[in-house]
Structure formats: C-alpha cells, structure tokens
Fold this sequence. Notes:
This protein is mainly alpha-helical. The protein contains four helices and no strands.
Amino acid sequence: MSELFTTAPEDKEKHLIDYEKETIDFNHHQAGAWLGQKWKLPYEIIDVIEHHHDPAY
Length: 57
C-alpha cells in the first residue's frame, strides 16, 4: 500500500482504483466487500460497499 500511495499522486488523470488494480491486483471496493462477507454483514451493506463509487448504482 505504501508503494501505491507513493506512486498514485504522480498521474492526476488516473483514479486510485486504477493504481490499486495495477499495484495489488484488487481495489478497495473488492477488499471492503470481502471484509464485509467475512464479518457476515447484511448483503445490502456489502453491496453498497462494493459499489460506493459507481454513480449509476
């Protein structure tokens, strides 16, 4: 993650999730949804976590 936050500010046109995918092969949406499943959160909450940056959602 420290590499990610070091290189992410270099290109202002790129979004954090693009850097996450390139650097750690998943994004914070996926990580949050996975964690929500492990914590046995309700599906509705996990779904919101997974799509929280999707304006169409």
